[in-house]
Q: What sequence folds into this?
C-alpha cells in the first residue's frame, strides 16, 4: 500500500476538524499498525469502492469522542455515548470521507463511499485484526483521532 493514499483523508480530516472543532490538529507519525479491539474505543468504518477500494477507519477513545461531540453540539456536555452522540460522531466520519472523496475526484480518482458504521468496543465480541496504514491526529485539549486506511 502506498503512503500517499492516506493524504486525502489526512488533509480532509485536518480541514473538517479545524472547521467543526475550532482546533488545528497536529499530525503524528505515519506507520503500518494492526487494528485490534481496544477497550473503551469507538471506530467509524466507511467503505470505499471504485478506482480505490477498501475501508477507512477512524479510531478514537470513547472519552475523546464524547469531547468531540460536546464541541459539535455547542458545548452541551455528554457523559455517555448515546444515540445522539453516535449520530454526531458518525457524521464527522462522513464529512471527512466525503471531502476526501472530492479531493480524490479532483485528482482523477473516482470513488464512492458507504454510509458510516459506528462500532463500539462494548458491543464487539469478535474483532478481526487487520493491518492498516495509520496516522494519528492530535487535538489539543481533546485527544487523538487515528486515521486508518486499508486500500486494496
A:
Amino acid at each position: 500500500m502506498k503512503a500517499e493514499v492516506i493524504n486525502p483523508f489526512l488533509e480532509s480530516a485536518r480541514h473538517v476538524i479545524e472547521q467543526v472543532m475550532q482546533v488545528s490538529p497536529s499530525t503524528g507519525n505515519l506507520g503500518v499498525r494492526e487494528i485490534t479491539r481496544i477497550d473503551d474505543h469507538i471506530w467509524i468504518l466507511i467503505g470505499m469502492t471504485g478506482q480505490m477500494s477498501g475501508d477507512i477507519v477512524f479510531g478514537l477513545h470513547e472519552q475523546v469522542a464524547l469531547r468531540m461531540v460536546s464541541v459539535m453540539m455547542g458545548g452541551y456536555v455528554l457523559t455517555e455515548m448515546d444515540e445522539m452522540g453516535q449520530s454526531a460522531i458518525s457524521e464527522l466520519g462522513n464529512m471527512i470521507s466525503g471531502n476526501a472523496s472530492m479531493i480524490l475526484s479532483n485528482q482523477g480518482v473516482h470513488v464512492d463511499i458507504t454510509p458510516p458504521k459506528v462500532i463500539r468496543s462494548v458491543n464487539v465480541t469478535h474483532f478481526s485484526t487487520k493491518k492498516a496504514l495509520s496516522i494519528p491526529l492530535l487535538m489539543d485539549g481533546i485527544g487523538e483521532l487515528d486515521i486508518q486506511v486499508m486500500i486494496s
Q: What stands out?
A: The helical segments are 7-21, 62-72, 83-106.
